[in-house]
Amino acid sequence: MSSNDRILTPELVRILKIFLLSSILLVFVFSFFNSYRADNTQRDRTFQMADSDRLYFLNVRSIHYDREIRKDAGMTLFRHKKRVQSDSFPTLDPVIILNPTKEEAYIYFELKNADYPISLEASLGEEKQQIEFSNGNNQAHLNLLKGLNPWIKEDYEFELVSGTQKYPLWTDVKEKEILKTILEDYFRLLNQTN
């Protein structure tokens, strides 16, 4: 082989330029579609919480809650410290439940001094609406929360109907603010802050 043979011929340089430019262009184009990956895990991510949201809740927001550690279930329950508690009237308190093993957060409506099934009546002026609820799984409680959320934001008045009796629910401005705080904290845990 002679020393005059060049390795980088003009043709090879042209091919390398085409290859490098097309590779860079493909990487740039595919970077826009990174979030559209296929999810083949078959997991329901409805209640999934990110580590950053969980840490924010535990380190910043949890000071406003009473914490109950349920070792039998492997979960931690958070009830707002300033919630209204009654020994005679029915109450319906939302409880945030963290499941650290599955990295999930649930909402549970804890009914006291009454039995399921219940219904919640919401009224604003002459407009009245009603939601039936008879306890259930995590999804049923989340559906109840999502059904109540627009009414809570618009300051509807609520009544709890158990059997034939009606009881006022979340009547005080303080109670409504506590309810809004719990909803905000829960939706932030699920990264649904819209």
Short description, anyone?
The chain has helices spanning 10-31, 51-59, 138-153, 173-189; strands at 65-70, 75-80, 91-99, 104-112, 118-124, 127-133, 157-162, 165-169. By secondary structure, the protein is an alpha+beta fold.
Q: How many β strands by DSSP?
A: 8
**Cα-based radius of gyration, to the nearest Å:** 27 Å
How many domains would you count in the coordinates? Answer: 1
Helix content: 25-40%
Order of H and E elements: HHEEEEEEHEEH
Most strands sheet = 4 strands, antiparallel
Structural class: alpha+beta
* Average pLDDT score: 86
**Regions with little confidence, pLDDT below 50 for 5+ residues:** none
Strand order of the largest sheet: 1-2-3-4
Shape: elongated
What is the number of helical segments per DSSP (H or I, 4+ residues)? 4
- Calculate the terminal CA-CA distance, rounded to whole Å: 70 Å
Strand content: 25-35%
Keywords: Membrane, Transmembrane, Transmembrane helix
Transmembrane segments: 12-33
